[in-house]
Design goal:
Number of strands: 0
Order of helices and strands: HHHHH
Number of helices: 5
Structural class: mainly alpha
Length: 147
Amino acid sequence: MFIQIALGTLLMLMSILISGLAFWALEVVLMRSHPWLLREPHRPKLALVLSVTVVWVLGMVTAGVWIWALALRALDIFVTMEASVYFSLVAFTTLGFGDILLPHQWRLLGGMAAANGLLSMGLLTAMLVEVLRHVRIGQMEARKRKI
């Protein structure tokens, strides 16, 4: 039990660390493009920021799923990588089909993967809202300065 908790905690920390680094990288990209984002026209640029951020978030979710899948495969819990990725995706998104289950001695990892997915989805939703809010407030302030 303690090995599962330690391993699950390590995998969760790795996933959150990657998300944090990716968020930092996105912030750097936005700061460098800030002057361009403030110039008219605003709406197409806001749509572009939304699209890029969504793809960025999907990349972070994919990274989290792959971290779990690689660990499950390395532990020989699943015979194929496809089964590891499938289980990780189903657990990470808390979908939980139940058609593929972890062996009894590793079942705590399934719950930890789901908790990691919930935490990641919350973090990434907050990131999406913050990015859009930041860009939109900057655009509205730039418009006020022109008037």
